Amino acid sequence: MNNVFPVKKGADLVKDHLLEQLQNGFYAPGDRLPSVESLASQYQVGRSTIREALSALKAVGWLDIRHGGGTFAKRQPQASADMLHSWLADIDSLQSLIEVRKIIEVGSAALAAKRRTAGDLDAMAECLQLMETHLGDEEASEQDDLLFHVHIARASHNEILIPMLELLHQQCARHMGHTRRMWLFGERSTAAQLHKEHQLIYEVIEQQQESLASKLMLDHLNKVEALLNDHA
Questions:
Q1: Of 73, 92, 115, at which residue does a domain stop?
Q2: 112 and 199, same domain (yes or no)
Q3: In 3-state terms, what secondary structure has residue 88?
Q4: How confident is the model at residue 7 (pLDDT cuts 50, 70, 90)?
Q5: CA of 110: how far to CAs of 46, 143, 161, 170, 217, in Å?
Q6: Helix/strand/coil for 144
Q7: CA distances for 21 relative to 86, 88, 99, 190, angstroms
Q8: Are both 44 and 156 inside the same structural domain?
Q9: In the chain, how many domains are there?
Q10: d(CA 105, CA 121)
Q11: Residue 85 burial (C-beta neighbours within 10 Å; 0-12, 13-18, 19+)
């Protein structure tokens, strides 16, 4: 591939560049994209950044990500996916987004506990390892947090929930503000607490404890909401 990407890093830049290639036919429907590792090397970013960019494009219908099978270009997204993306992009209230997340993700966690596969658990476990590795690294920790919740949505195996939650998390990140992101993900002690909460959620999903998965998810999101409000 001859395209040269700017040195500046960021999932949005990667997403925009890949979207341009998808739109102009560089990747035709059915084409397999390079591996995450290859894209990370090409764009000079971490693998978590690539995964976030790919997840964003999957959420609006441009990509088909098959666990263990690669990433493939799809036909132009349906209008419904574009409408959902546009609607969420217009919401400028972080509080409203978190409230919707609490409503949806409590059920998503229960479904994940009921339906998760070995592949789903592997993806979540890998993400937890990244969280621990990136403690205190604001940008990487934020991306790891997003990916963990996206993996839970995928483990629900509900085709409506997955794009909704991917978009909700992206919009939350966009509206959080640099100061609050830095405090939430950059402070090692706070990031360690978030990692512990995610670890507990993972364990009950692994054990298929649906009610407890819902409870722990609600507790987690309530704590995040309180932390963000304290540092508004």
A1: 73
A2: yes
A3: helix
A4: very low
A5: 31, 23, 12, 22, 9
A6: helix
A7: 21, 24, 35, 38
A8: no
A9: 2
A10: 17
A11: buried
Q: Using alpha carbons, list the distances in angstroms from residue 88 to 152, 161, 168.
A: 20, 14, 7
Question: pTM value?
Answer: 0.64
Mean pLDDT of the chain: 83
What is the CATH number for 117? 1.20.120.530
Q: Is the pLDDT of residue 229 over 90?
A: no
Q: Amino acid letter at 104?
A: I
Task: Report the C-alpha gap between 86 and 91 in whole angstroms.
Answer: 9
The backbone region for 90, taken as left when phi is positive above 0, alpha when psi lies in -120 to 50, beta otherwise, is: alpha
Tell whether 218 and 125 lie within a shared domain.
yes
Determine contact, residues 129/21, Cβ cutoff 8 Å. Answer: no
| Whether residue 61 sits in one domain with residue 147 | no
Query: How far apart (Å, rounded) are the C-alpha atoms in residues 19 and 178?
Result: 25
Residue 109 contacts residue 217 (beta carbons within 8 Å): yes
What does the angle CA 69 – CA 200 – CA 197 come to, to the nearest 5 degrees?
A: 100
Ordered DSSP codes for 1-32: ------S---HHHHHHHHHHHHHTTSS-TTPB
Regarding whether 226 and 126 lie in a shared domain, the answer is yes
Q: Is the pLDDT of residue 116 over 90?
A: yes
Range in 68-72, 147-151, 185-189 the model is least confident about: 185-189
Q: Specify whether the CB–CB gap between 89 and 59 falls below 8 A.
A: no
User: Over the stretch 61-100, which tens digit does the pLDDT of each residue have?
Assistant: 788 888 778 999 987 654 444 545 554 554 457 778 888 8
**How are the residues of the chain apportioned to helix, strand and coil, as percentages rounded to the nearest 5?**
70, 5, 25
**Residue span of the structural domain in which 68 resides:** 11-73
